[in-house]
Amino acid sequence: MPPAFGIEQVQTSADQGEIRIHGSLRFAEAAPLWTELRRLETSAARGQTLNFEMSAVQRIDGGAMALLACLRAELQRRGVKSEFVAADAHVQRIIHLYGGDHAVARLKRRRPLGTLDQLGRATISILLEVKLVLAFFGQMVVAGAGVLRSPRSANWRELPATMERSGADAVPVILLINFLVGVAMAFQSAAQLKQFGANILVADLIGISICRELGPLMTAIVVCGRSGAAFAAELGFMQVNEEIDALRTMGFGPMRYLVLPRALALILVVPLLTLLADVAGVLGGLVVGVTSLDLTVRGYLNQTARVVSLWDISSGVIKSMVFAFAVALIACQQGLATSGGAEGVGRRTTSTVVITMFTLILVDAVTTVLFRMAGL
Amino acid sequence: MSDPLFKVVDLTIGWDETVVQRGATFEIERGSIFAILGSSGCGKSTMLRYLVGLEAPLSGSITIDGLAPDQSVPGRPLFGVMFQSGALLGSLTVGENVALPLQAWTCLPPDAIGGIVAAKLRLVGLEHAEGRMPSELSGGMCKRAGIARAMALEPDLLFLDEPSAGLDPVSAVELDELILSLNQQLGLTFVVVTHDLESIFKISKSCIMLDRESKSIIARGDPRVLRDTSTDPRVHSFFNRTPLEVTS
User: Fold this and answer.
1) What is the ipTM score, two decimals?
2) How does DSSP classify residue A214?
3) Where exactly are the structural domains of chain A?
4) Given CB atoms, is B30 within the 8 Å cutoff of chain A?
């Protein structure tokens, strides 16, 4: 079907032309209209005049008018004089509505940021984030001291439910992951130790590395992904929904009411989860030792008991408490710093997981070095 | 009624055993501003969800130019909708929000889409907000951007849910002016769900009033006429802002 409009270009003098439009201009035919207009307007050069002659336009809707107004603005920015002329009263009203008879503003061009500029901004933003987390840590300490003075001021009702969600509900996934980590590590080390006939040392390797490093770390990573992300999203949604503000106006500080119960819940359950993780990891190694290295169950367990000291287990538990505090601190800080609706909640949840993961690895490295330096 | 654009026949809405409104029948004339009124909880916004095809009615029919709301004419949907909060996508800029339907439904090149977006935003007074994120806008600006997005594909019919809710008086009046201007200059048909009486009297010449208790339409016509002549105590009370006297 042919379009309901027609366009032709007429040169009225050496430096003056017209685009004559007739018929009905509708948004449904915006694509051919735009193609045709684009073809014609390219001939106009700076200093020339190219008007839109509208006397034969019977009907025009907003979409088509938007395209014409856009083209006129582009022409004017290129230095071509362009106006809508000879339109009837109804068409003129629509031209006016879409600013077709207004002066065209100059476009502001944004300069892209340079690499150094971007690097500087990113560094400042990271430092600011660290500062905010440290400030939040200070507020938590002050609020914690306040709760110690007046225990009833905290929201203890939320504690059991949070412990259940973050602890009991996480047991299956913690057991499975740590068991598989134990299996994978045992397989990798078995291949090497077999060459020296030192099969039994698999038990040493698995026992110590799981209890001191991998058990607490893997548990903290799972808790970060499950509970940390959940805390950040929950508090973030409360923040954008003005629920936090409502709590503040009612006299409930978010620190005592929301943050401390969550932090305490994690500090209480993560060490327990870590102990379970240690057991699951050692069992993973045991399965490989018995099935692939011709070790007996008793022999493997005896060797593990001989090399794994109480300090190996308790240092892992101490680490796990630090990890739990870090997860709660960062997740709650990020959640309460949320702004900007659903997108803001998503952004803060993602940054919670990223920052927490980085922090966990950093804290793990630092504590390991400190323990070694202290001869522990 | 000379040229009905929108027809609702014997519409019953609700879910499972719950009926929100039953037996609603009305027509909306092309080029009019039609208001759906009622007190809080009567099902106005729920009715809107059915009218725009987001929910399937329990019974009855809705047609826009002879088509069901979930159908579309080639190249574009039958109508545009502005939700109460504007419902802009938070991860996109205001300009990208308005461009979204154009990218989805047209084969226009990016420069043409950019031109239409700029024109629509200018139309609603947001020409300087094209690159801003929705979270940086005020409530009134979000609603204006929502209208620009709803108008992007040049629908003949626009649904507006509580356009003046949560706005300061100046912003509310400006929004009313914008609706009137779009109606008069472009001939757009509006269906406005609201309980803002000042706005209703200013922009609308036809309305229906829903009732929570009887779950039905209890009044229809020109809101000014209903205010001055209705003998139904519920209608009189609503339009004249007087407490409803409870009879035992």
Assistant:
1) 0.73
2) I
3) 5-97, 117-373
4) no
